[in-house]
Amino acid sequence: MRKAPKRPIKKLTVAIPPLEIDALDTTKRVVDFCIQQGLVDGVSTDIEGLIALDPNLALKKVPLRDGIDAYIKELSPGRYEIGVNSKHSQTRQKFSMAHEYAHYRLHKDNLAELAEGERILHRSDDWNTIEQQANSFAAEILMPEDQFREEIRRTGGSISELAEKFGVSPLALRYRAKNLGMRGHGV
Ligand SMILES: [Zn+2]
User: Fold this and answer.
1) What is the distance in A from the centroid of ligand 1 to the CA of 11?
2) How far is the CA of 47 from the centre of ligand 1 (A)?
3) How far is the CA of 118 from the centre of ligand 1 (A)?
4) Measured in angstroms, how far is the CA atom of residue 99 from the centroid of ligand 1?
5) Structurally, what CATH architecture does the domain formed by 21-143 represent?
6) Residue extents of the structural domains in the chain
7) I want to staple 157 with a disulfide (CB 3.0 to 4.6 A). Which of 58, 75, 166, 185 is the partner?
8) What is the pTM of this model?
9) CA angle 54, 56, 57 (to 5 degrees)
10) What is the pLDDT of residue 14?
């Protein structure tokens, strides 16, 4: 297999050991990597930038059929493509990309059924373990717990302000709050 060119990924901004892009198997590592790479603006994570840095991942923004948020498929052994519905809002696309990135990190052996595209956060089978894992992973990298709790304190739990800061939809925010066992405070 052709080896992809090495990209400069050694730029450190915080004092944690440099992480390699193919070692990001936990949300903590993904978050640390994004910080090291300068992909976090305030508390908003540039998931598109993260995908762009991975030589084995390609991103396509295309109009997908109604009801479909995104897909991930294996193009050739070890090379994957994430497609996201360009008809959706930026915030919705962001969560969709993070969700597919989670499948890429966690579920490489179960991707066949996702190649046709899927609906995310609005579906009736979100209890499905794989989908639950992908939603949790996506929410954790877009809204890391410490930052999320801190911003809730800072904003008093204003959904619009929080959504703006994290660059996510109100739906994704509520999902994260619920996922952290929070109730009330407007989220
Ligand atoms: Zn999924």
Assistant:
1) 31
2) 16
3) 6
4) 6
5) Orthogonal Bundle (1.10)
6) 21-143
7) 185
8) 0.87
9) 70
10) 54
